[in-house]
Amino acid sequence: MTSRDAPRGGVRRRTVLGGAAAAGLALAGCADRGGGAPRVRKRGQRITLTFWSWVPGIDGPVDLWNRRHPEVRVKVEKVSAVNGEQYAKMHAAIKAGNPPDLGQIEFPVIPGFLMDNGLRDLAPLGAARHRAAFVAWQWRQSVLGPGIYAIPQASGPMGLFVRQDLFDRWGVRVPGTWEEYAAAAEAVRRHGAWIETFAPANGNRFAGLAWQAGAKWFASDGDTWIVHLDDEPTRRVADFWEGLVRRGLVKTIPDRRDAWYRDIQTGAIPAWVGASWGDALLAGNAPGTKGGWRAAPLPQWHPGDRAFANWGGSTIAVFAAAPYPRDALDFALWLNTDPESIALLVKGGYGFPSVTSGYRATDLDAEADFFGGQAYSAVFADAGAHVDTGWQWGPGVDALFAQLGDAFTDALADGSSFRSALVKVQRQTVADLRDQGLKAESGA
Predict the structure, then answer these.
(1) Strand 72-78 to strand 47-53: parallel, antiparallel, or no bridges (unpaired)?
(2) Which helix (H) or strand (E) holds 172?
(3) Between the CA atoms of 256, 257, 259 and 264, what dihedral angle is there, to the nearest 10 degrees?
(4) From the centroid of its chain, how far is CA 98?
(5) How far apart are CA 113 and CA 7, in angstroms?
């Protein structure tokens, strides 16, 4: 790849890193197109930036920005977040040379966009000066080596939602450990319900559960990716949920689909291991259960532990082809730090803010009545403060999630073990990385 071929402003594939501490992982080839030389907007010049997002209520803060910044108008275009449709559209736009200026991108898929040379490195634009405004571990989700590739917006610290009214009626204790969770599942089943579902296709949630257990799916050794999806913590999680499935203590229907919402509404499923953003989801889809729900900390593997993880979380990235990246960065920073913008995002239900100030946890208790008056966001604030910061993502996570879902679905159908599903996806992931020209090995 010659200097003429190299993207100017977008990250090269050869500089995609295994983690913030890595020196650099060699990647073969380069994308067809990268970012052109950035332009500097002249005084008084009016421009329009296009922003692809699926966040609820995003129009409110964008309208506020447009009123305050008439020279730099932002146009929101909504994209579907179902089954990764938004990312397929973004990758296609990058390859076609016509991506938007900015896009909503979740933590796990950032490395995949770097493989496309799709994102602008914001470090040369001074993004590092704003590091202290954000939760440290969330800031690091977008920092790879010396590069900064997005501005964090919100996270999804995990917890346990329970129908406290039904648990009380049935004499079931809210579990504080996974052992107690299994006991609660038995008790709930005796009353004709299932404590919840193991959704086989939900690789993102399974990753969060493995994260909490201490798993490390991706690491780097020099210029080589080390992939270890079947490490001991992940096996522990797989064994636990397989045991519940085989004993008939949980359902295996997809979560956040019609059948699951019906079970949530009727009490057939009275609990859910979810994330902070689940408050609006439950309130919006099970209004008849208002007042019965409570939020509790994620069950622990050992009594007294304080291990937590994240499910979801997103950033605002500037695409490499954006002609005015400095203005795009200014908008991304304002959107995620301005107190009035944060208030509007919170009102819209966008998640748990990545910014460290400008709001209180109680500001996020928008569904307090649904949760019986509980100040439930304090549960997730504490979880977010104790997330294991050693977790890192690697490239191709969207494909990994799909393969994991297929493997678990096959295991449910043919009776094979969940551990065998992990081994299968481990092999597939290593092969996929090698097919992309990366050096990859299985973890010991």
Answers:
(1) parallel
(2) none
(3) 20
(4) 25
(5) 14
Give the Cα separation of 230 and 335 in Å (integer). 39
pLDDT tens by residue, 343-372: 999 888 787 899 998 888 888 898 999 999
Paired residues of 296 in beta bridges: 160
What's the token pair of residue 365?
A: 């208790």
**Residues near 35 by beta carbon (within 8 Å), at least 6 away in sequence:** 7, 8, 9, 10, 117, 120, 319, 320, 321, 322, 325
Strand, helix or coil for residue 175? coil
CB atoms within 10 A of CB 172: 24
The angle subtended at Cα 330 by Cα 326 and Cα 335, nearest 5°, is 150
Which candidate, 22, 94, 35, 31, places its Cα nearest to that of 437?
31
Which tokens sit at 234? 């992940």
Backbone φ and ψ of 148, nearest 5°:
-125, 120
List, as one string, the DSSP characters of 380-395: HHHHHHTB-TT----T
Going by C-alpha positions, the residue among 192, 195, 194, 217 that lies closest to residue 204 is: 217
The torsion of the CA quartet 357, 359, 364, 369, rounded to 10 degrees, works out to: 150
Amino acid at 275: A
Hey, what are 158's tokens? 């995990």
Residues 338 and 418 sit within 8 Å (Cβ to Cβ): no
* DSSP-derived secondary structure for 111-166: HHHHHTT-BB--GGGTGGGGGGGB-HHHHHTTEETTEE--EEEEE-BEEEEEEHHH
Contact between residue 356 and residue 366 where contact means Cβ atoms under 8 Å apart: no
Q: Using CB atoms within 10 A of its CB, is residue 39 exposed (0-12), middle (13-18) or buried (19+)? A: middle
- Structure token pair of residue 31: 């994308």
Which residue type is seen at 6?
A
User: pLDDT band at residue 427, thresholds of 50, 70 and 90?
Assistant: very high
Q: In the 8-state DSSP scheme, what is residue 396?
A: T
> Residue 259 is encoded by which pair of tokens?
């059948």
What whole-number distance in Å separates Cα of residue 144 and Cα of residue 127? 13
Tens digit of pLDDT for each residue in 26-80? 332 333 334 457 788 888 899 999 999 998 889 999 999 999 999 999 999 999 8
Q: Would you give the DSSP letter of residue 318?
A: E
* Inter-residue contact 140 to 20 (CB < 8 Å): yes
